[in-house]
Specification:
By secondary structure, the protein is of the alpha+beta class. The protein has one domain: Archease domain (Archease, Possible Chaperone, Chain: A, domain 1, 3-Layer(bab) Sandwich). The chain contains 2 helices and 5 strands; from the N terminus they run E-E-H-E-H-E-E. The strands form 2 sheets. Strands 3-5-4 form a 3-stranded antiparallel beta sheet. The chain has a two-stranded antiparallel ribbon with strand order 1-2. The chain is globular and about 40 Å long.
Length: 114
């Protein structure tokens, strides 16, 4: 599993790679949070479920990458571990992290994926 970045006109592009679609989604989520903070400093203390339905894989990735930062803002948390499974058009994800605190580096705020 790995990720990388590419130049994009207005923002930053990410690429998630894995042996499976799910691993690619997990790698993409990790790339997003590597922009937000030093994810290696984030303790995976609290799990948050993220579930949605989508049959189109590309659109599912966009939904996944929008739901996670949304949960981050909603719960004042930052995440460092990402897991997702697909069952038909149902996606069942889990992200682990902790509440933002002074000891965590604040990087770029990610507003959303397109």
């Amino acid at each position: 599993m790995s990720s990388s970045y590419f130049a994009h006109d207005a923002d930053i592009g990410i690429i998630g790679r894995g042996l499976t679609i799910e691993q690619s989604f997990e790698a993409a989520a990790l790339a997003v949070f590597a922009i937000i903070t030093n994810f290696e400093a984030v303790q995976p203390a609290t799990a948050v479920a993220i579930e949605f339905a989508e049959s189109d894989t590309e659109l599912a990735l966009v939904i996944w990458l929008n739901l996670i930062p949304g949960k981050s803002r909603e719960l004042s948390m930052v995440f460092s571990h990402f897991y997702i499974q697909r069952q038909g058009n149902q996606w069942h994800g889990k992200v682990l992290g902790e509440k933002w605190h002074d000891g965590l580096e604040h990087g770029v705020e990610v507003k959303g994926a397109t």
